[in-house]
Design goal:
This protein has about 120 residues and is an alpha+beta fold. It has helices at about 10-15, 40-50, 60-65, 70-80, 100-110, and strands at about 5-10, 20-30, 30-35, 55, 85-90, 95-100. The strands form two sheets. The chain has a three-stranded antiparallel sheet. A three-stranded antiparallel sheet has the order 4-6-5. Helix 2 (about 40-50) packs across helix 3 (about 60-65) and helix 2 (about 40-50) packs across helix 4. The longest helix is centred in the middle third of the chain and has 13 residues, at about 40-50. The chain is globular and about 40 Å long.
Amino acid sequence: MMRARLTYVPLEVAEQFEDFIIKRDEEILGAVKARTRDYSTLSLLKLLYQLRGNPMTFSELYSKSKIRMKKSFLNYLHLCVDYNFVRKEAVGSNMIYTITDKGHTMLNLFMQKNN
């Protein structure tokens, strides 16, 4: 059995993946503090959802994902890269992250539930 976890979820992600949220708390800076289920899947979806529109730098993605612990963020980001959900590319001194077709497929599998 999975344990519920307290986390911050970007408002747009919370609305799109409502079934992951057990209980909403306060809203803070564009995110809702919430008790969630299936935390790992939700964390992957947070990353993929942010990248669905356009590529981002590491800092942009970290900030917008609302995964507050940098070590956790790095673990999920590396998982996304390892499974080819996200591609990273060095552009100048920045690393740019882009969602792949496989990442879109993964994200769409969860988004179709609400459509």
